[in-house]
Amino acid sequence: MTAGVRYLTGSMHTDDILAGLERGDTAALARAISLVENQRDGFERVLSQLHNRVGRGLTHRIGITGPPGAGKSTLTEQLIQRYREQGRKVAVIAVDPTSPFTGGALLGDRIRMESVSLDPGVFIRSMATRGAQGGLATTTEEVADVLEAFGFERILIETVGVGQTELDVAATAETTVLVLVPESGDGIQTLKAGVMEIAEVYVINKSDRPGADKLKQEVEVMLGIRRGNAFAHITPHHNPTPRAVKGGKGRQEAVTADAWEAPVLMTVASKGDGVAELVAALDRHHAYLAATGKLVERRARRLAARTRAVVNRAVRQWVWDETRAEELLAQRLADVAGGTRSPYDVAEEILDQVRAAAGRGASE
Known about the structure:
Blueprint: H1 10-23, H2 26-37, H3 43-50, E1 60-65, H4 72-85, E2 90-96, H5 109-112, H6 114-117, E3 122-128, H7 136-150, E4 154-159, H8 164-170, E5 175-180, H9 187-191, E6 201-204, H10 212-227, H11 251-254, E7 264-266, H12 275-292, H13 294-322, H14 325-338, H15 343-363
């Protein structure tokens, strides 16, 4: 062996990463995240070793989503600064579009958050939406687990838009913030994309622009419709008493005592306006989740979904790597292209082969 050169096996490499994480080594943290993100040998062992440090209620995972141009990165940078002023360690997972040339993250939030990127209490990681096995949402949550185990008290998950991928990723957070901006043509059309079902805090950013008050009112009306008490505060011209919702008991019946009423906040992130109110709302929501037991419930649901995703990922990998599925597909591809067989016929043949392989394995 050449002097001074150390050759590491996969196991020793994982041991080095785990030892570095124990020491609080940021370089080991970066290596651990790369291991998990790319699902290299040993990533499941790292996650298993760190699992008992996750879920203690000390870390708040916050999803930040919204249409491009809404100012999410600027708002995220402002949140980082506020949390750092409180002495909290902050991590950011920036889910960026994938470069068509390199496969890497395209936007690079470390550049956009230059003012905080050199702070030792801040860790920023860009993740590409190239789609890891098992799904981006699962991989993002696994990376968040590594960051939580390392001791970060606030984990901000920023996504680039409001598509299905972004909704899935944001749903891995405990509190999701939807950032909207006036004059963008989004308005209610954006709210129809399913975001209304997962966001707990709404932010009208760049609220010094015309149309901000109108957009705020539209969001509040939509939230009222979802809760079943829209216009409950409006007095009809033919009735001097406030209009009641169905059943005649008004707003109190529509909103139960333990329901969270999502606030609609106005910010100008570039100036820092309204950011303190946003931090307060995020803290209130986390306290609400803890007080009502919903924090524990959400974590249990996430862990159940994670376990299923891990099983699905392992089964998928086994099917293509450990059976003759790929070989059989290659043999039948000409038939599929020629129209003599359908993809469903070939899939059934592959599954029959997989079942047979599984049966042989069980009998051995």
